[in-house]
Amino acid sequence: MLVSRELNAAFWALRVAFGFGPLIAGLDKFTNVLVNWQKYLSPAAERMLPVSATTFMHFVGVVEIAVGLAILFGATRSFGYIAMLWLFAIAANLISMGTYYDIAVRDILLGIGAYALARVTEARQSVITVEPSGDYRIAA
Asked: What are the domain boundaries of the chain?
């Protein structure tokens, strides 16, 4: 089988979105330009933290930056699954607050999109692509 243009288009759209999305959100954890991220941290979770909410958000930012860069640099299969779990955890935190349900639903849907990135990556890796010269190679 050949990798279709449609499969490649879906792969690259998801890769760019799930690369730059976490990267930008992670960087913003240090500046709070987009939003004051601490307001999304459940008070129950905050009480259990051994560090301040700000320090925790900086840690979250580092994780998000790492996930975004890993996806941008090609680790789409494994980090697609990691992004999915991360987004589901964020949604669970928001639901536990009893507020921000709209953002929780959005993060669940984004998590499903991250799952799709991992699965599309698997699909691309399981087929052969044809180079313009007519040479065959395994899709990477």
From this structure: 5-138
